[in-house]
Design goal:
Oligomer: heterodimer
Number of helices of chain B: 7
Strand content of chain A: under 5%
Radius of gyration of chain A: 23 Å
Largest sheet of chain B: 2 strands, antiparallel
Number of strands of chain B: 2
Strand order of the largest sheet of chain A: 1-2
Amino acid sequence: MVRAALRSPALAVAVLLAALITIPLADSLYRVPIQVSDSLEPIVIAAKYDSGRHLLVDSLTFSPTTFRPSRYLQARALLALTDGTGLTHHAVFRGVHVALLVLLVGLFIAAVRVREWPDLVAFTVALPVLVGVHTFLSMLLEAFPVNHFAEVGVCALGVFVLAQHPSRWFVPIVACALLALSLSVVESGAMVWVTVICCAAAGLRGIDRTTVVSTTLLFGGYVLLRHVLGISSPGVGGHGSGFGDQFYSPEELTQRFGAHPLGFMLYNVTGGLASLLFAEPRQGVYSLLAAWRERDIHPVVLINVISSAATTGLLIWYAVTRLPGKRSTWSDVDRTFVVACAAFVVNAVFNAVYIKDEIMSPGGLFYAIATFVAVRALVERLPQQRLAIASLGAIFLATISALWAFRVAGVHYQLRYDAFKTRNDWVEVLRPDKHDDWPRDPDELALTRRLRTEAIDRRTTSPSFMPRWADRYWVE
Amino acid sequence: MILALFSVWWAAAGVAGDGLWPPDNVTLSEAVATRNNGEAVRLMDMGADPNRPTRVRDGLLTNGYAVTIKPIEAAVGAQRADSVRMLLANGVLVDHAERRMLLCLEQTRRDSGVRELLATESEDHLECEGVRSPLEQVH
């Protein structure tokens, strides 16, 4: 990328812009302490085992509905890195989190392939979409204690970038490795296989038959292994989710939809897709319905819906007016657009049982790539239009770009908020008035205490000292 | 471009100090008043006395004036049961007179969790007449 950047001034500027936007974001992300929920337990479990092999074998049966052995192995590897380097747990675990963010942005730059100045204009709209879309923030807020959704995003984008280049002998090996890694951390890892299939179906030249067959066999093996181990997929009621303008607990969902889940599943799939395309619903809940009922609509809902709907409108414009009907006449850019759209549409199916923004996070990455293609086409077309139409087009792009930039600023705010909440969560760990709940094992106690001390010692900002208006404009 | 400029400013502010929305420099009572239990624990770990009154700046619990109050008074004033419990667990002492004053303060800033933590059987009939609120302005 460095050599390419030196050859293309537009790419050099794009890399510079991305760096300028990513560095403060990395800073905000690094300020969030290691989480208590989802992180403390895997870290403690990983530290207890005398060998990685034992941990791997046992982790296969930790849960009847999930198969995530690498969660524990990664935690163990990072604990070893902490001990080996003398760094703090925060530096290692959160450092990996930041590295994943940088990788995601780097792969996005590689995927959109900025070469000329119009590409750069499209990039200045697409990058804020990448970072500002709510699924990206939800992905950043996850950490189990390594951010598995970000890992899946990196692997899916990695496959996509490989697919854009001529096929090479190592592509099937790398694609299988990325798929294996993704599937071993979280079920959404199947998005890597989906990406391979979408790339092959759209005719991207980097994915040949060998890659399709090998990744499909691997995915089939994964499904079979889950079956052999007796690991089932969670059904309706395994997780809370929204319906209409309300969020329901798992028990309520079972009671309401357990007997006839198909309609609810269809609602979730369409809702998952709509959440990406129109920023509504969120976690299955249509805030606009609630706002209508309460006669009080928060600006954040309007900003998100307007920016997302306008961007989706651009994608529809491209698909209808610019995409040739025959696959054989598609350009590389068309194929990129089709793969990106197909990936986020298929991603919506992953929401069948419950809607969660994180599940749509790989789709969010592809949504930004599709946006790049559509904006690039619009920018190319504007000079050919009459002045009035060209001006309107430019104003439209500037407006959605500004709205998305505002959403990106909100990501910082919400990361600060999350840092504050996460640090406060650690106050509830090793409570002085609940000695009976403390770990009995001295090593576990020492590790827990160290993690707690690191988190408490990292000062955060209370929302009381942040702008009062921010909640209404940035937090849904 | 605006976003990039904003980010440059953000990064520069970070290099120069703690950046935009830096961590608060607060007293123990202010930490509690702003729901910042993590900071309160850090301050206590560093030796701050949880029974000692400290200043709470204007705008956090009061409007138009600052007050000097104990952390537990700040917790009750901020309607934070979790903060009250955290302070009690960390060695805050509350005698009978103070408990009554806190319960009377809770009557003006209702929070059932706070009331539950402070209430005792002998205080079924709370009499608040003549009890001065720690959040009142001192002239």
